[in-house]
Automatic annotation (TrEMBL):
CDD domains: Eukaryotic_PFK. Residues 1-399 are annotated as: N-terminal catalytic PFK domain 1. Residues 412-794 are annotated as: C-terminal regulatory PFK domain 2. The gene is PFKPB. Catalyzes the phosphorylation of D-fructose 6-phosphate to fructose 1,6-bisphosphate by ATP, the first committing step of glycolysis. Its cofactor is Mg(2+). Pathway: Carbohydrate degradation; glycolysis; D-glyceraldehyde 3-phosphate and glycerone phosphate from D-glucose: step 3/4. One of its GO terms (biological process) is fructose 6-phosphate metabolic process. ATP binds at residues 34, 97-98, 127-130. This is ATP-dependent 6-phosphofructokinase. Residues 27-332, 412-697 form the Phosphofructokinase domain. SUPFAM superfamilies: Phosphofructokinase.
Length: 794
């Protein structure tokens, strides 16, 4: 559920974190409840941001239990004490479920322990139970201090100094079961674990023609089950918010046997541990297995993933999310006044927001209440738009109708990939083809982009042709960088021969340029007067009109994993600095965001010009760092950041200037960033945006069908579907030209540049950090933004 959007601030109202002093303040950070990957990244960010602003920061070990017990459980943190935490799963400072904190006596002990250290700012990382407990503690705070005063444990001066307790929460939960945020810390990593297992199981299932029933976590929330089903193309999914209708046993078995009869060698069924039937009865994975065996006689196995989902290293997304949230949490604590309510730092779309903690908790409790009352549609609505869109996309793709039941639109829609391959392209093509068929269109696949188009490499593509495509990397349709400009006449001829009424282009900057060329040639070729839509898919994430592109998350994970291994290779050796070159053309997204996720000391990009003095400053910074207990350095360089300061130059400079203090190694990551199986995010993102694009095409075709033919030549009929801040928006390509730097193939304005100060602060650089866009407490709302053709939330 999203917060309301506040208007943009004017430039003259900017405020910088330097003006928010933490001097004389003490901040404590604790992790509570179930652990989640990424919690350590949040702890690291809170500690470093706290120290950066001049505050004292304390670890509270073992959650609320440590706060109650006091002693060595509450220790002051140092900058070095959070080094190498970013890539570690779980929580290094420990977590425990504490019955004692639920009692008044326990909270009194905890208050005494905090007052002794002057801690009046608390950052709690946990689920709704942990955050509710923190809010109760805050409400009781003045009463607890008075009790301690009466008992002679503290004096009046201590009561005055510690009169207000400020609380900021961050949600760490793999279940993604907290209302008010699109993603909780740990969810993306848990999806990585699930998809790794599903991909591995698919190969053995195919070998033996088996059916696998996978049980995933989610006692009260089906997010993991739903999104993993969407990301792997599961045959059936069970989760608490959507109990199957009566008679589901027959429907499921019929669907499984139909899939087998069409040549599929395996079935995947995903069951959330809290799955229920329409009467509230528990549906277990064993029950589903026994049903399949007894009804269909299929060789069926059960795999319960269990705590594997909580384990392992955090994904790039969770590290970035945790780092952003941790920094924002400290800013929120510094800005809090006596009457500021406890808040949760949250993510809505691509925006960090603050929401009142208890509003989120109450909304989360409303979901459970709706489910208890069997109001399942209401529960889904309360979960928020992200959950709703996942569910509607799954329903759209899950039900294959018989050809006789499909509407017959008599429209032909062509799908093609253009540019370099990007992981997630195939998931988008699969989704587009199946949604198009469901909408009644005849879908055509174009091989090898515009090059294949003008050569006539076009054929109809059916539902079964895209089976199993979701988890495949690269581009199965084939993709080329060729632009259509020189072959417009032949492409127009192929569109006429095949009677193509709409185009869906999935690709990078060449796809954007190609569609611009086609749409601007509409006055010469009437064949191009059809609805056209582009979905950005490129590892570089350099497309104007979209904050994110399909493929960039997979590339980020490849960079992060490699940086982890490279850093570990220096473990136990002498002091070492690694210079790593990333892809991206002139766009510094991969280098910057990869640097934030990997804990880089410096990142060189084209968008932020640098000179020899900056390089010298960075070398001196690393030299100073090497004199501490941290003996590794990581420097990322975007491939085109500077034509003279090459990777070799920077390597040689660092080697020379660091002589006697550290030695250097360099790595060029190259095409490994483009390869590999798509991440869960890219599979899910590709699936959802392609479904939305095809629905837009259907709407545009109906509007532009007049006199027995399709004719669309308005600006709005050639669009790019992109993610902008909090919403998915269809934007006319012609309007995006003003936002584009065509020479360097990047957008003129890039949102992720705001993450660079966060990265620099966490690497201990003193910089100006504008916090004027944060600081507004929003509210959890059930009001929907109106969906228009050109602005639809995902």
């Amino acid at each position: 559920m999203t917060g309301t959007v506040s208007g943009p601030r004017r430039q003259d109202t900017r405020k910088f974190v330097e003006n928010l002093s933490g001097a004389g303040k003490s901040i404590a950070v604790l992790t509570s409840g179930g652990d989640a990957q990424g919690m350590n990244g949040a702890v690291r960010a809170v500690v470093r941001m706290g120290i950066y602003v001049g505050a004292k920061v304390y670890f509270i070990h073992e959650g609320y239990q440590g706060m109650v017990d006091g002693g060595d459980n509450i220790k002051e943190a140092t900058w070095e004490s959070v080094s190498s935490m970013l890539q570690v799963g779980g929580t290094v400072i420990g977590s425990a479920r504490c019955k004692e904190f639920r009692t008044h006596e326990g909270r009194l002990k905890a208050a005494h322990n905090l007052v002794q250290r002057g801690i009046t700012n608390l950052c709690v990382i946990g689920g709704d139970g942990s955050l509710t407990g923190a809010n109760l503690f805050r409400e009781e705070w003045s009463g607890l201090l008075n009790e301690l005063l009466e008992q002679g444990l503290i004096d009046k001066e201590a009561v005055r100094r510690n009169s207000v307790l400020h609380i900021v929460g961050m949600v760490g939960s793999i279940d993604n079961d907290f209302c008010g945020t699109d993603m909780t810390i740990g969810t993306d990593s848990a999806l990585h674990r699930i998809i790794e297992v599903v991909d591995a199981i698919m190969t053995t299932a195919q070998s033996h023609q088996r059916t696998f029933v996978l049980e995933v976590m989610g006692r009260h929330c089906g997010y993991l089950a739903l999104v993993s089903a969407l990301a792997c193309g599961a045959d059936w999914v069970f989760f608490p918010e959507m109990p199957p209708e009566d008679g589901w046993e027959d429907n499921m078995c019929q669907k499984l046997s139909e899939n087998r009869s069409r040549g599929s060698r395996l079935n995947i069924i995903i069951v959330a541990e809290g799955a229920i039937g329409s009467q509230g009865q528990h549906i277990s994975s064993d029950f589903v297995k026994n049903l399949v065996v007894s009804r269909l006689g299929l060789d069926t196995r059960v795999t319960i993933l269990g705590h594997v989902q909580r384990g392992g290293t955090p994904s790039a997304f969770d590290r970035i999310l945790a780092s952003r949230m941790g920094v924002e949490a400290v800013v929120a604590l510094l800005e809090a006044s006596a009457d500021t309510p406890a808040c949760v730092v949250s993510l809505v779309g691509n925006q960090a927001v603050r929401l009142p903690l208890m509003e989120c908790v109450q909304m989360t409790q409303e979901v459970q209440k709706a489910m208890d009352e069997k109001k399942f549609d209401e529960a889904v609505r309360l979960r928020g738009r992200s959950f709703e869109h996942n569910l509607s996309t799954y329903r759209l793709l899950a039900s294959r109708k018989a050809d006789s039941e499909l509407p017959n639109s008599s429209f032909n829609v062509a799908v093609l990939n253009v540019g370099a391959p990007a992981a997630g392209m195939n998931a988008a093509v699969r989704s587009a083809v199946r949604v198009g068929i469901t909408e009644g269109h005849k879908m055509f696949a174009v091989n090898d982009g515009f090059e294949g188009f003008h050569k006539g490499q076009i054929k109809e593509i059916k539902w079964g042709d895209v089976g199993g495509w979701t988890g495949q990397g690269g581009s199965l349709l084939g993709t080329k960088r060729t632009l259509p400009g020189k072959h417009l006449d032949k492409i127009a001829e192929q569109m006429r021969i095949n009677n193509i009424n709409a185009l869906l282009v999935i690709g990078g900057f060449e796809a954007y340029m190609g569609l611009l060329e086609l749409s601007s040639a509409r006055d010469k070729f009437s064949e191009f007067c059809v609805p056209m839509v582009m979905i950005p898919a490129t590892v570089s994430n350099n497309i104007p009109g979209s904050d994110l592109s399909i493929g960039s998350d997979t590339a980020l994970n490849a960079i992060t994993d490699t940086c982890d291994r490279i850093k570990q290779s220096a473990s136990g050796t002498k002091r070492r600095v690694f210079i790593i070159e990333t892809m991206g053309g002139y766009c510094g997204y991969l280098a910057t965001v990869g640097g934030l996720a990997a804990g880089a000391d410096a990142v060189y990009i084209f968008e932020e010009p640098f000179d020899i003095r900056d390089l010298q400053t960075n070398v001196e910074h690393l030299t100073h760092k090497m004199k501490t207990s941290i003996q590794r350095g990581l420097v990322l360089r975007n491939e085109n950041c500077n034509e003279n300061f090459t990777t070799d130059f920077i390597y040689q400079l660092y080697s020379e200037e660091g002589r006697g203090v550290f030695d250097c190694r360099k790595n060029i990551l190259g095409h490994m960033q483009q390869g590999g199986a798509p991440s869960p995010f890219d599979r899910n993102f590709g699936t959802k945006v392609a479904a939305k694009a095809v629905q837009w095409i259907t709407r545009m075709l109906k509007e532009s069908y007049k006199g027995g033919k399709v004719f669309a030549n308005s600006e709005e009929s050639a669009c790019l579907l992109g993610m902008r801040r909090r919403a998915m928006v269809f934007q006319p390509l012609a309007q995006l030209q003003e936002e584009t730097d065509f020479v360097h193939r990047i957008p003129k304005d890039q949102w992720w540049l705001k993450l660079r100060p966060v990265m620099k602060i966490l690497a201990k650089y003193k910089i100006d950090y504008d916090v004027s866009e944060s600081g507004q407490l929003e509210h959890v709302t059930q009001v929907r933004p109106k969906e228009s053709d050109f602005s639809a939330s995902i």
